[in-house]
Queue: 3 jobs
Job 1
Amino acid sequence: MSTAPTLLWFRQDLRLEDNPALSAAAARGGVVVAVYIWDPEGEGSWAPGAASRWWLHHSLTALDAALRRAGSRLLVRSGASERVLGELLAATGADAVYWNRRYEPAAIARDAAIKSGLKARGVDARSFNASLLFEPTGVKNRQGGPFQVFTPYWRHCLSLEVERPAAAARPDWMPVSRLPVADALESLGLLPTLDWAAAFGRTWVPGEDGARKALEAFVAARVDTYATDRDFPSLGASSRLSAALHFGEIGPRQIWERLRARNEETGVFPASVGESRFLAEVGWREFAYHLLFHFPRTPEAPLRGEYAAFPWADDPEGKLLRAWRRGRTGYPIVDAGMRELWTTGWMHNRVRMIVASFLVKHLRLPWQEGARWFWDTLVDADLASNTLGWQWSAGCGADAAPYFRIFNPVLQGEKFDAEGRYVKTWIPELARLPASCIHRPWEADPGTLASAGVELGRTYPRPIVDHVRARQAALAALQALKERPS
DNA sequence: TGAAATGTTGGGGCG
DNA sequence: ACGCCCCAACATTTC
């Protein structure tokens, strides 16, 4: 008796290498049917945003192309995951569904229901870990609870065994002639109707091949200087792997293995502060999933509950929020970051911290507004990392920057973009200003501004808030929160 | 993975 | 020669 087909349900693991669900499906022996289900309703209030959908479209296209080369296709459908899986089981004669786990609250609830429903019908339903070095359930502090501070968390993780990438799998993919008819990828409507994402295609190569090349390029040219260069946004020192990691075009075990193999001869690993630092950034991603799993309400609510009553500023017509979103705050380093985000779907990490601090402290607008904007505009939008990042910036999360730690956007610009190269890249109207005043054009003398073609209030805005007063107001708001009668 | 305010120290100008 | 003061440089504290 021959083995029935297996449905391999792709979600945020859009790769064929290091794919434990795929390896297990291949080991079953029957043919494997690759399936992707577009099910935004199943994501709670966090359906992929516009930039993520752009990436997803192209990543699915790449996965489909890889499967075509193997004589099959990616079977694409949209609708409720459980219903679609049921239909595909019937249409293909499959008796098993394998997938790699997700860890977002809505996905956990949905997947658990699907798994028990399938099992009740006698379907072999199994899930695997493809996307984390350390699953949240497997890491506990001495008291048996979740870690809430990164350094002890990561130290503990580094004492644990890291699994090797999954074995390569060459399954018998179900041939195109036997596949049910798939929906066209275009029918999912993932691409924007207006082509605001034009620059995305010049910036990114979604898909497993692109991810592999990005890792190789980073390891070859960047990782050794990563520890020092990573803070300077004009140096291009980032790995730029965040979106590939989010969509699972590459897995953290592959990254780990790549660096381990790099030091095979010496046996010393990690071998440099650059490698350690880069792995620690992978560790922050792990920590973000750890926190999201154990504190599932944090995408909406501060982990430190007292911050729910923070006295945010009034912005009745949304003018402040709009200026921030569009990169028109009058602070060049902030505006450059917001424009890089809008143009490319990505922002350098140092600059993410600066713009987040500015929104939450200088404008005193709720961090949730920033998280939502990032969610819609980042190609790497990831519920765990986004939530951690914003709660960190707002001072209301685990191991967060204290609220009183307020970035001075001028000093941050002068420290990390001394020549103004980053600012000039994203704010061309300031490109002719000398470095000495690029981060504070409002202090430049009229002649300098004129010869640079800058007219404050017209070609580039004046600061929408005064730094000193905004800082004082932020500290006063924190004080008000502390003194609030409880 | 801050910044600003405040405190301390020590060199040098100067009466 | 000496004490006083200024202030830059650095350290510490506070937000």
Job 2
Amino acid sequence: MAAVSSQPKQQERYEDSYLYKLRHSAAHLMAQAVQELYLGAKLSIGPPIENGFYYDIEFPEPLKEDDLEKIEKRMKELAKLDQRIQCIPIASKGEARKLILDQEIPGMGEAVAEYKLQLLDAIKDGDQITFYDQQRTDREGKLHRFFDLCRGPHVDSTKEVKNFKLMSLAGAYWRGDVKNKQLTRIYGTAFETKEDLELHLHNLDEAKKRDHRILGRELGLFMFSPRVGTGLALWLPKGATLRHVMQDFLQKEQVRRGYEPVITPQIASIKLYEKSGHIITFKDKLFPFMHDEDGDKDTYILKPMNCPFHIEIYQSQMRSYRDLPVRYAEFGTVHRYEQSGEVTGILRARGFTQDDAHLFVTPDQLQEEFIGVVELTKLVLDKLGLSDYRVRVGTKDPNSDKYIGHDDNWEAATNAIIAACEKMGMEYVISPGDAAFYGPKLDLIIKDALGREWQMGTVQVDYNLPERFELEYTGEDGKPHRPIMIHRAPFGSMERMIGLLTEQYAGAFPFWLAPVQITVLPIADRHNDAAQEMANKLREVIYDTRNLRVSVDDRRETLGKKIRDNQMHKVPYMLILGDKDIEAGTVGIRSREKGDLGAMSYEDFLVSLE
RNA sequence: GCCUUCGUAGCUCAGCGGCAGAGCAUUCCCUUGGUAAGGGAAAGGUCACGAGUUCAAUUCUCGUCGAAGGCUCCA
């Protein structure tokens, strides 16, 4: 199912499209309205975004959502004036500075130019400086202009900015840095036609119905309770079943590929994480420490990740090059104290289960093993029906000091990932700053119902933890060598993957995944026994390594009612059993997608499932 | 954590300074049926929690907790 998106269908890049210009102009028109309405408002930036635009502004008084209406109204008035818009080049920074300070619109000037001047300063000498230049001549022939430092491009007149809507308010840090002041961000959306705008708003409403939190409750997959705590999901029978099915599938694939299962504890001494380096990077993101009864003898923390445990297991014995690669897999439940504002249903929870594994390999094996893992990850997504993903190679941010290990290691690991991508002919985007603190990684990114991107499967190459833990194996030469680690999780986490899948399928999971695959519907009470019998018979059938999951709806309701309810619960097949069927030895089949398929023998139905 | 918005029955929501409402779900009764809601009745609430203003607060104000959207972060 496609995410909400209203980008042009043509091959044309969004940045070159009319829609992009339109939204850009809408943003600046909003800036003009704000300047008129709120004396002292400081403008910063207002770019178009995927489905609209925003503008970050510092307001003298906190802005409330009711204000949006007022701003929208003024924008409409300004738009109607048919003001000519141009993107004009400015020859020098000095001239640009003058333009910013000499705004004719009241309120603009030194006191409110703070962010604009900073933006101007950031422009490299020699680079082209351009301004949004909007002008009109009033009845008396007087010229009114509104300038705004801007890269462009724009539409030709404000009257083209007709079909727009201001959506919401948010805080956003200046230049994306928490240390800076938080500005007020106004989000809006704009379209060429009224119909497009309405369609977009309609699509947003539809997307909200696919929200995994709503479907999760409606379908009985999982729930949250304030008494349990933020970000801590309770898995209901159907959701737990879904998890088991997914785990079975992955486990089977892992056994085929030589993975071995391990199980590790939920808490560990803090020493383990001091050794790994996680404590320094993530000390604020851990649940409170646990202390020994007799004081400071030892401190324990709730497991935030599995790697160090697997490393301990690797290290527990002498390893020969003949033993490698070693592949340890675990569905490891971890807890991380995410900031309250970051928690999003099961897509970002405080407790979650990773389909984790760590491979310990020799340098010679690295590429082959890495490719093997990426291929497994792609196979997993393919099986789940998620074809719409992008590949991101997260590398070190050269300006940050949060990383451990030597540059040589980083270079080797990054090169290994890129070489493997090239060898596989895979499209990828390099994203500096998106590496883990111990190494670069390859992530598969998928969008949710609202078009937000989420990191799903991940594969990471790590030279640094083996070094910190002094991991070794004995080589052919009889000398100790250092293995390389591959961290990987094809689903990412069970929670996030199930959340995404729920949204992708709008709850109508494919047959092999559906928590309830078949419901048997007896028409009247006298058919209940036959229905139970049929359900029991079906439950003996092995499908895709598991017994069929069958329920019986023997409530005293009409058939129509039962069908409706089961359809709402997205059950793939309903088997209807009444007098006619019992007499003829058939069963009425109803498919979730195709509706009534008519009567069929039990055997024919089974064959149709294959 | 920060900005904005929201919290009324299990769910979806209406209401509002003066006795707490509807639909669905639940329970019971009637109905025993053939492909998307059969009929009736009952039960269900400290209007998230705590303070304040008021003769009177579910309604207004403040605080706490929880949730949603965004920012930051994401081993």
Job 3
Amino acid sequence: MQKFKVIKTDKKSKARRGILQTAHGKIQTPFFMPIATSGAVKTVTPEEVKKCGAQIILSNTYHLMLRPGMPVIKKAGGLHKFMNWSGPILTDSGGYQVFSLSKIRKIKNSGVEFQSHLDGSKHLLTPEKAIKIQETLGSDIMMVLDECPKYPVSKSYARKSMELTTTWAIRSKRAHSNKNLLFGITQGSTYKDLRIQHVRELVKIGFDGYAVGGLAVGEPVQKMYQVLDWVVPELPENKPRYLMGVGKPEQIIEAVKRGVDMFDCVIPTRNARHGTLYVWGNKLGGARAFARAWLKQGLQSTPLGGKFYQELRIKQSKYRLDIKPVDPQCNCELCQNYSRSYLRHLFMTNEPLALRLATLHNVNFYLRLMELIRKGI
RNA sequence: GGGUGGGUACCAAAGCGGUCAACUGGAUCAGACUGUAAAUCUGAUGCCUUCGGGCUUCGGGGGUUCGAAUCCCUCCCCACCCA
């Protein structure tokens, strides 16, 4: 059975629309996954996330392994039931924690040994174990365990790391025992020959989809786009492509134009909690035409100096007396009912409501963005 | 009326002869955030600056000293206790 189908391709770019079939339903691509690392999109409920238009969310193997632990998940009947999210869930393998928690982990051939940031206990996460945990979670899209190296890395290290990731990919695939999707993750840092070599290796192993990993870890954005230009053409047309951890709105568009179908990022949720709100920078009236323009003309020709949106830092004092909504064009709970002045007040007084409203707004923005992108293709 | 303890930057609060424009919180201001150890983190917060430094501050006034937020005198104010 074909689980991914491209239904439309853009004429002027490599952008494409598609449908990805998962155990918990179909997803329109390109899509964005709000992040629920520990089984919750911070500060909001799954019902609210769904209402924002989320088709799928992302969760994390490493964090759920430590807390609540698999016995709890098993007792609940899987992560979907545990957190009351009935849509698809993609789970990251813990590979990103190799990067983000680099101070408390050791890489071995067998896997990654983490020293828990919670209680100091040691946990060896092997490729097999990562798959097993993800199967226990009931993940619809599982990711192979990989090593996400920092930027910059020496070529020799990048090669070594990449080779390890390949052997882990093979072991992951071998351990994969249910019908849910398993994605490979391509690495190779910013080295062209490594990137190309690695995609080819992974395609040869064969996965349900392919992720481009190891990006947005500090490299210049142009390099990130360049890596996509090397890697995506090597990927099969009939498999979904996932750019892990990206990104800012314009980066998502640039990646879609390069043929990427899937995204996730903490930016909308984390920045919301930190008081940065995403606001459309131009009329959304002719949304479809507008989106099409972004895709075809590129961002240089769009308004606001290449940006079609603004980052509104609501804590700035200039919003103290601003009684306008955060974004008059937005239909979220925040913008429909509350002023900038009030939201700023909620932030300044540390009211938890601030985080919730801001999160709903940003998630709404990102999902709306994806909707426009899909319409534009 | 008597006694005791105090008055330090926007607030709170350290400092008790030089290394003090003054620890530390808070508040405020600005910035960062990319497969979430993040409702977090970084920086700024007397005035001026050619960024070397310069100038005016620790309730008011006076004094001691080479030198005072720090010691002495005096005045003002505050808190608590006793009458």
